[in-house]
Write a structure and sequence with these properties.
This protein is of the alpha+beta class. It is about 20% helix and about 25% strand. The longest helix has 14 residues.
Length: about 110
């Protein structure tokens, strides 16, 4: 079963769902911008429940304490790798599992942020 990566309504990529060591069932994910109220991205895995994450879209900046460690418009959640050395292993494992199209999108976001 593939994971389908959407930006808005545009299909960005499709990739096999990675297996987890614990055998836990994967969840689909929806990315919600608290500033404009849009679901700006989704990772859809058929027949799996959705988890919603509050992450600013690429048009809006971080607005609250919960947003300080996120990169607006990024599929990757968690501490910003540019400011947190502790999370480098977490980021490396996330990047390993992303399809090339999503990695290219993430790189373009980081270059715009710099």
């Amino acid at each position: 079963m593939p994971a389908l990566y959407f930006l808005g309504t545009r299909l960005l990529a499709s990739a096999p769902v990675p297996t987890t060591p614990s055998g836990a069932a994967p969840h689909s994910e929806a990315y919600f911008c608290a500033t404009c109220g849009s679901i700006w991205a989704r990772v859809v895995i058929s027949d799996s429940p959705f988890t919603c994450h509050t992450v600013p879209c690429h048009l809006h900046q971080r607005t609250g304490v919960a947003d300080w460690s996120t990169i607006p418009g990024s599929f990757l959640r968690g501490p910003d790798p540019r400011t947190s050395a502790v999370s480098s292993m977490f980021w490396a494992s996330c990047l390993d599992r992303l399809p090339p199209e999503v990695l290219s999108y993430e790189l373009s976001l980081l270059l715009l942020e710099s």
